[in-house]
Amino acid sequence: MRSEGSRPEPRSRVDVLVIGGGNAALCAAISARREGASVLVLESADAFWRGGNTRHTRNMRCAHDSATEILTGPYTEEEFFEDLLRVTGGRTDEDLARHMIRESKAMLTWIAEQGVRWQPSLGGTLSLGRTNSFFLGGGRAMLNALYATAGRLGVEVRYEAEVTDLAIEDGHFLAATLRSGERIEAGTLVAAAGGFESNIDWLKRYWGEAADNFLIRGTRNNTGAILRLLLDKGVQKVGDPTQCHAVAIDARAPKYDGGIITRLDCVVFGIVVNKHAERFYDEGEDIWPKRYAIWGRLVAAQPDQIAYVVFDARSLELFMPSLYPPIRAETIPALAEALGLDPEALDRTVAAFNAAVRPGTFDDTILDDCRTEGLTPPKSHWARRIETGPFYAYPVRPGITFTYLGTRVNRDARMIMADGRPSANMFAAGEIMAGNVLGQGYAAGIGMTIGAVFGRIAGREAARHARN
Question: Measured at the alpha carbon of residue 307, what is the angle toward residues 302 and 313, in degrees to the nearest 5?
Answer without folding.
Answer: 155
